Amino acid sequence: MLLNARAKAVTERMVRTLSLIVPREDLYLSHSDEEATEIADWVVARRYRTVFTGGGDGTFVSWINRIIDAAERRHQRTPRFGVLALGTGNAVAELVGASPRRHARDLTRYLAGEFGGTRRVDLVTCEGRRTPFAGVGIDAAILNDYNWVKDQLAGTPLQALGLGLTGYGLAVALRSAPRKLLERSPTYCEIVNTGHEAWRLDGQGRRVGPAIGPGELLYAGPCMMAGASTVPFYGMRMRIFPHAAKERGLMQLRVVSDPAVSTLLMNIHRIWSGDFAHEKVLDFHADQVSLRFERPTPLQIGGDAEGWRDAVTFGMAPAPIELVDFRVATG
């Protein structure tokens, strides 16, 4: 069991609870990036068959990269992964039926042999890291704004308002939406297919039109958001990528050009459920694309803000991972 000791959800009480389920020698807490790398190497050396991570998507991404890197260095097989939902963004946990309200029970039942299923999950690569999803534009800006709201309210009587869905709502209302209304226009973006054949998708995720060959342009124009994912969710069951994981070895690329803010706000429920279709929302299946922007744009990788970029590449990781699926009972 791998935990980030610096995460807010990893309290002494949480550690005590988990230590009653998992032998203490199998419970690892990292206090720094260096220590996390050492732990990952030790975990691989001990040849655990299944490794659980506890936290949100950012914690998951951090641990799987370290574990996979350590396995490659040692020429060993990558272990199977499990995830407990202990973060704000839990897209991966939602994919496999893990819940923040029953993480201790899920882990107990898994160790008792009540869950036997696994799910193969492809990963996206971005800036040398493997992740279920990454994006540039308004999604990353909202994440930055959420972090700002959370920091502003931390240590105050209103601290709880800055967390979770309420915190995201405040971020959008106080910063993201006003900034969008004042913005002169979304930045211009060109997206080129730098992999094998890519395909444009319709609102139901079906291929339309001819294949887009290597080196060909997928899109050129204003870009409010461009995201790539191999999982449907963005956390809090927001189904931003409804066509992800439908084609093995391909990611869904979603490009939102410049719809009116009022259109987005009026359709927030349809966007959340994955049912929103619009002429200014373009979907593709691809295995590698390169994006260039007219001006620097916010980037997020696995739900963690990564600053600003004027160029970025999304690709497919060479191999999928195996995830414990809490929705599949043994027998």
Describe the structure.
The protein is of the alpha+beta class and 331 residues long. It has two domains: 2-114, Rossmann fold (3-Layer(aba) Sandwich); 133-316, Tumour Suppressor Smad4. 30% of the residues lie in helices and 32% in strands. It has helices at residues 12-19, 33-45, 57-73, 91-95, 103-111, 138-153, 164-182, 261-266, 268-273; strands at residues 2-4, 28-30, 50-55, 80-85, 118-121, 124-126, 129-131, 133-137, 187-193, 198-201, 207-212, 217-223, 225-229, 251-256, 281-286, 288-301, 304-316, 321-324. Strands 6, 7, 8, 9, 10, 11, 12, 13, 14, 15, 16 and 17 form a twelve-stranded antiparallel beta sheet that branches. The radius of gyration is 20 Å and the shape is globular.
